[in-house]
Amino acid sequence: MPLLLSGRTFRRDLERSKALALYAPLEGGAETRLLRRMRACGYHTELSSVRGLGDPEVFLLGLHGIRPPHLGHQRVGKEAAVGEVQMVMPQLGPALSGPNPVLIWLLEGQVLSAAERSSLLALCEREPRLHFVLEMGGSRNLRWQPLADLGIS
């Protein structure tokens, strides 16, 4: 239990490898404690799901377009069948403007392909203040490993 009280080992491993794959107990609680510890250490944290992420680099750092969901019998007029494209600001624009390191905590990381995981690693290399934690599934006890060790080819 001392691991959950301080979070020093987790923070040291995160700063060394930049991106971690996390396996947490399914009853929950451990990951929120780690998030609180990282916020207390000065990290700006963002919690998100990887479902619907698309291209991680564009979604997190670039101006990108989204379309509203097509809900059936709607008059679409001059727009396409799926609606009008709306431009959205990058998710990490304000977070990276400050001096603090940024931690992106991504839920359901097991659905990412090897190429998407490697693009997250490349993003960490390009932006030194950016760190990722991917929740990769459940485990009996809290454990993590560097994301690069998951067999990205």
From TrEMBL:
Endpoints of the signal sequence: none
Keyword annotations from UniProtKB, A to Z: Membrane, NAD, NADP, Plastoquinone, Quinone, Thylakoid, Translocase, Transport
The reactions it catalyses are:
a plastoquinone + NADH + (n+1) H(+)(in) = a plastoquinol + NAD(+) + n H(+)(out); a plastoquinone + NADPH + (n+1) H(+)(in) = a plastoquinol + NADP(+) + n H(+)(out)
Q: InterPro entries from the xrefs? A: NAD(P)H-quinone_OxRdtase_su_N
- Please indicate if the UniProt record lists NADP as a keyword: yes
Q: Does the keyword NAD apply?
A: yes
Q: Name one GO cellular component term.
A: plasma membrane-derived thylakoid membrane
This protein's source sits in the domain of life called Bacteria
MF (Gene Ontology): oxidoreductase activity, acting on NAD(P)H, quinone or similar compound as acceptor; quinone binding
Pfam families from the entry? NdhN
Compartment list: Cellular thylakoid membrane
Q: How does it sit in the membrane?
A: Peripheral membrane protein
Give the Enzyme Commission number. Answer: 7.1.1.-
**Major place of residence:** membrane
**Biological role:** NDH-1 shuttles electrons from an unknown electron donor, via FMN and iron-sulfur (Fe-S) centers, to quinones in the respiratory and/or the photosynthetic chain. The immediate electron acceptor for the enzyme in this species is believed to be plastoquinone. Couples the redox reaction to proton translocation, and thus conserves the redox energy in a proton gradient. Cyanobacterial NDH-1 also plays a role in inorganic carbon-concentration.
Q: Name the protein family.
A: Belongs to the complex I NdhN subunit family.
Subunit architecture = NDH-1 can be composed of about 15 different subunits; different subcomplexes with different compositions have been identified which probably have different functions.
Query: What is the protein name given in its UniProt record?
Result: NAD(P)H-quinone oxidoreductase subunit N
Q: What is the lineage of its organism?
A: Bacteria, Bacillati, Cyanobacteriota, Cyanophyceae, Synechococcales
Q: Which gene encodes it?
A: ndhN
